[in-house]
Amino acid sequence: MKISSIFAIAALSAEIALTFAKNNNHAVANTRTSSSLQQPTKETMFGTFVNESELLKTSSFPIAPKQLMERAREILAPAVGLGTKDGGACLADDFEFCAAVVGPIGKKEYLGALGSFKLEDAFDISPNFFGMGVDPLQPNRVWFFNRVKGTHTGKFMGAEPTGKEIVYPPQIHHMDFNADGKLKEYGFYTADRRQGNTGGLGGAFGFMYGVGKPLPIPECQPYKRSFRFRLLSFVGGLGQKVQKKKKD
């Protein structure tokens, strides 16, 4: 790849990012006509907070926020286990699981995948959920965090129990519900890949990495910048140094 092409890509990437930030502000402002959406007085992507309580009051979704969070806690409880303990009764027929790497996959495939790992047989797990709330701009969605800790107590992926404590990075989860209170979509994403001892990986991949048995694919390895990204970063840094010297 020619150096001139790389500079062009860098400039185009910056322009796209700036355009997206500007358009995103307008898109968010237009999703509601209520005065509870604060209108910025100038072009900015910082400092604007919506009036959550007012937005939720005007929601047409039939399940109130408090009841929706109670429903989310029911589905997270051991008796239901996100559909794995109740035979999928809590899941809508059109349910999809969609995370950072896996998905979207349907109800049947989701239940089969979770049942095959048998994590509870190999680890003493504390999910440590916290920070639950309803999205004021998408009132059928519940957001929450967790910080998983697990002790390796049984055989897993061919690895004998070690007693090692597996500490996950913080993860952010979402649950989308339909009007009947059935779970329509569930997914989670690593919020800070530098924390924990799973290489920044979440879900079952974190346990695999934690016991030294990651799948031999890039998605099951700690994040590593590609050669092209490293080259682009190098050239971008070089360009900034040149510009600084010209100003000086």
Describe the structure.
A 6-stranded mixed beta sheet has the order 2-1-9-8-5-4. Strands 3-6-7 form a 3-stranded antiparallel beta sheet. Strand 8 and strand 9 form a beta hairpin. The chain is an alpha+beta fold. Helix 1 packs across helix 7. The protein has 7 helices and 9 strands; from the N terminus they run H-H-H-E-E-H-H-E-E-E-E-E-E-E-H-H.
How much of the sequence lies in strands comes to: 15-25%
Distance between the termini: 30 Å
Main sheet: which strands, in order across? 2-1-9-8-5-4
What is the arithmetic mean of pLDDT?
Answer: 85
The quaternary structure here is single chain
Q: How many strands, what sense, and barrel or not for the largest sheet?
A: 6 strands, mixed
H/E element order:
HHHEEHHEEEEEEEHH
Number of helices, where a helix is a run of at least 4 consecutive DSSP H or I residues = 7
What overall form do the CA principal axes indicate? flat
- Radius of gyration over all CA atoms, rounded: 22 Å
Number of strands: 9
- Provide the structure class: alpha+beta
